[in-house]
Write a structure and sequence with these properties.
single chain, 445 residues, alpha/beta, six-stranded parallel β-sheet, 33% helix
Length: 445
């Protein structure tokens, strides 16, 4: 196939930082007709990660294999065509010496990577430095190099799907909805989207329903009257919607997004406890959360694997103890949690050990999912076998992963990509119900 000749002035040169390749192993294929340059220090840093049994290690190995395949087609030092349809190339740059006036300390790999971008820019190329490290982007900007984040898998957090919407309705429409248990609306709704119908003449006259039918123009009432589940009751409309979707066995993937204190983890645990322990619909309630920094071995904590997990899973233990303490019967919540763990009905697991498993007939909760990359979330969802329900919870404004933010994390990515699927349900919770103090802290601090 002939390669289209593109005028030199139209071609951009993208210099990639190591974290871009570790974040997305397919990033080298994402720049179309442009020239992609990988500084030699990036190759050295990939080499340090390649032996890790983590997603970072997997991505490093995948990138190295891809570059090795390109090497067989040409010299990487000169640039090898990645896509013959566009003519885009990938090259490895060995020259790290910056211009004399750059003022960069070349004792650090980050600065040597920046030096490559600076030299190419001084050579007259239209250079864009791509990094997920904010400090690197700041330094690039100071050197008058255009810098950007890798945004192939990002969403706009300000426009994130809420999982519910409010619709104005005529008085007779609200009344008919209560009587006929069905209402046709003009707006097209997403599958399992919730609707708050508000009487336009009397704002206090409302009805709560959810999307029904394949066409997305029908609203039906909730499927059940959930006054109390596992000893707790919903305290606001959003929590009521969350419990509705959590207890709907036709919805196999649920995401709950909200700030601290909105009840997302407690609601997920309550639904999982109800469906597993009380109703017996699942073999096990499996709860997991990422170990941050993600993928690091738990060996730096003392004790057995189970003892180490206790440190990381303490928030889960606290919520379970609260749930079980509110149940009727003898014994404190802590002892009841231990009994469930010993009996195998509830299992705690670090996310590091979830990968590679096939999870069948379980209610799986992944807490703190905002610390996962889109690829890592995809890996987890692909672990779900027959009759398994997966719930992802997290706060996209409280991210510990240094290379993710509220727009690029896997939790928000799943919300936007899955919102049209009939297997998916979502609720964004905004009202803190933990305590008055917690509510004020979220609002003012």
């Amino acid at each position: 196939m002939a390669v289209a000749i593109i005028p030199r002035a139209m071609i951009k040169t993208f210099v990639l930082d190591t974290n871009v390749l570790l974040h997305n192993a397919n990033s080298l294929r994402s720049f179309g007709k442009s020239q992609v340059v990988i500084p030699i220090d990036v190759i050295e840093e990939l080499d340090k990660f390649k032996k890790e049994s983590t997603d970072l290690g997997r991505n490093a190995r995948e990138v190295i294999r891809f570059l090795d395949r390109l090497r067989r087609r040409g010299r990487l030092g000169e640039g090898v065509v990645v896509d013959e349809a566009t003519g885009g190339t990938v090259a490895v740059d060995l020259h790290t010496a910056p211009p004399a006036d750059a003022g960069l300390d070349l004792n650090t790999p980050d600065n040597r990577i920046l030096a490559v971008a600076l030299r190419l820019a001084r050579d007259g190329k239209e250079v864009v430095f791509v990094s997920k490290d904010m400090n690197q982007r700041i330094k690039a900007d100071a050197l008058d190099i255009r810098a950007m984040d890798f945004e192939k898998q990002t969403v706009n957090i300000d426009e994130l799907y809420l999982g519910w919407r409010e619709l104005q309705a005529a008085p007779d429409e609200v009344r008919d909805f209560y009587e006929k248990k069905r209402l046709h609306v003009e707006e097209r709704l997403y599958p399992h989207e919730f609707v708050l119908l508000r009487d336009r003449t009397d704002p206090k006259h409302t009805a709560l329903g959810r999307s029904a039918g394949a066409e997305g123009h029908e609203v039906m009432p909730f499927r059940g009257d959930i006054s109390k589940i596992a000893g707790i009751s919903p305290r606001n409309m959003e929590q009521r919607c969350a419990l509705e979707i959590l207890l709907d066995d036709d919805v196999r993937l649920v995401t709950l997004v909200g700030q601290a204190g909105t009840g997302k983890t407690l609601l997920a645990l309550a639904a999982g406890y109800q469906r597993t322990v009380k109703d017996g619909l699942y073999e096990k309630l499996l709860v997991s959360r990422p170990i941050m920094p993600l993928g690091r071995d738990l060996g730096y904590l003392p004790g057995t694997k189970e003892e180490k997990l206790t440190h990381w899973m303490q928030p889960i233990f606290d919520n379970l103890k609260f749930l079980l303490r509110s149940q009727k019967g003898t014994g404190d919540g802590g002892r009841k949690v231990e009994d469930l763990l010993a009996g195998g009905l509830v299992e705690m697991e670090a996310l590091t050990y979830i990968r590679g498993r096939s999870i069948f007939n379980q209610f799986l909760i992944v807490d703190e999912a905002q610390n996962l990359t889109p690829h890592e979330v995809k890996t987890i969802i692909s672990r779900a076998g027959h009759d398994t329900k997966l719930v992802l919870t997290g706060d996209p404004y409280q991210i510990d992963n240094p290379y993710l933010d509220s727009n690029s994390n896997g939790l928000c990515y799943v919300v936007e990509r899955m919102k049209g699927s009939d297997l998916f349900g979502h609720v964004q919770l905004s009202k803190s119900e933990r305590s008055r103090l917690a509510s004020v802290a979220v609002e003012l601090l």
